[in-house]
Specification:
- The protein is an alpha/beta fold.
- It folds into two domains: 2-113 and 241-279, D-Maltodextrin-Binding Protein, domain 2; 115-233, Periplasmic binding protein-like II (D-Maltodextrin-Binding Protein, domain 2).
- It has helices spanning 2-16, 44-57, 70-78, 93-101, 131-138, 165-175, 190-198, 228-233, 255-260, 266-274; strands spanning 34-39, 62-67, 84-87, 106-120, 128-129, 156-160, 185-187, 203-208, 217-218, 220-221, 239-247, 278-279.
- The strands form two sheets. Strands 1, 2, 3, 4, 6, 7, 8, 9, 11 and 12 form a ten-stranded mixed sheet that branches. Strands 5-10 form a two-stranded parallel sheet.
- Helix 2 (44-57) packs antiparallel against helix 10 (266-274).
- The longest helix is centred in the first third of the chain and has 15 residues, at 2-16.
- The protein is globular.
């Protein structure tokens, strides 16, 4: 219990320790030519753009970004297969326990804010829903749009796969202890969810704020539309932070530290905004 408590304190400490957003990488670190990053498809676009900008500062470092889901990234960090895990959710209790048992001390770095957006095809006349209505769709209680005042059209229900942090967030915000019904279709990434909804008139799904465009329509939830202002303020009911996780707080001057604090730089914030997410700082 004491070890778990100490590990938890590291997470709290990380919320207050931003470090300096430096671009320098210490002497010995320059000999390390690769940096593996694994995890969330939501955080993936940010990690990709951070990597491109980071390479210009540190051309000697090769960075690989793997996007297979938050759960996969956290598992890779715990198993020592990557020094940085991207995640669109906080680490679960059982993951935290497993990490501590393996001598890993997870530290969370909140790099941006996001909103889990409920999306439908642009032709759908429905503009707003309540949380309970979305739950009724995903549990199979509501199966036709006419039940919500829309067209007489069957609802095609799309969900992220269970290893996804966005799935976990949606479950927390909407489903609670209720299970999704058997006709829900599962997809592996935000782009796949976006594609399925944008090409299917009767579809409903959910994606991160950065994946909302003119090809899908994001619904108001409980009277609040998802946008930068409502996500930043927490007014949008499905707002959440996006994370990088490391094993312990990174050594100052290391490549891991420089990457994990890149969100504090002006360029890092520009990237986060350009990708449709919300910076946690504002220079």
């Amino acid at each position: 219990m004491r070890t778990t408590w100490q590990a938890a304190m590291w997470v709290v400490l990380a919320a207050f320790l931003g470090g300096m957003p430096g671009s320098a990488v210490g002497g010995d670190e320059k000999e390390k030519t690769s940096l593996q990053i694994e995890g969330s498809t939501t955080v993936g676009p940010i990690a990709d753009e951070f990597t491109e900008a980071f390479k210009k500062l540190h051309p000697e470092i090769t960075i690989t970004v793997k996007k297979t889901g938050s759960g996969d990234g956290i598992a890779a960090l715990i198993d020592g297969r990557c020094p940085i895990a991207t995640s669109s959710r906080f680490m679960k209790g059982d993951e935290f326990k497993k990490a501590v048992e393996k001598g890993v001390t997870p530290v969370a770095h909140a790099i941006a804010m996001d909103g889990v957006c409920i999306v439908v095809h642009p032709s759908n006349p429905i503009k707003a829903m309540k949380t309970e209505q979305v739950k009724d769709i995903y549990t199979g209680k509501i199966t036709n749009w006419k039940e919500l005042g829309g067209a007489d059209k069957p609802i095609v229900v799309i969900s992220r796969d269970t290893s996804s942090g966005t799935y976990e967030s949606f479950t927390n915000f909407v489903m609670g202890k209720d299970k999704m019904f058997e006709k829900v279709e599962y997809v592996n990434s935000n782009p796949q969810a976006h594609s399925r909804v944008s090409t299917t008139e009767g579809a409903i799904g959910y994606v991160g704020l950065g994946f909302v465009d003119e090809k899908v329509k994001a619904l108001e939830m409980n009277g609040v539309a998802p946008n930068r202002k409502t996500v930043q303020s927490g007014q949008y009911p499905f707002s959440r932070p996006l994370f990088l996780f490391t094993n312990g707080y990174p050594d100052l001057g290391s490549a891991v530290h420089a990457f994990c604090t890149f969100y504090l730089t002006e360029k890092g914030q520009e990237i986060i905004e350009a990708k449709g997410f919300v910076p946690v700082t504002n220079y």
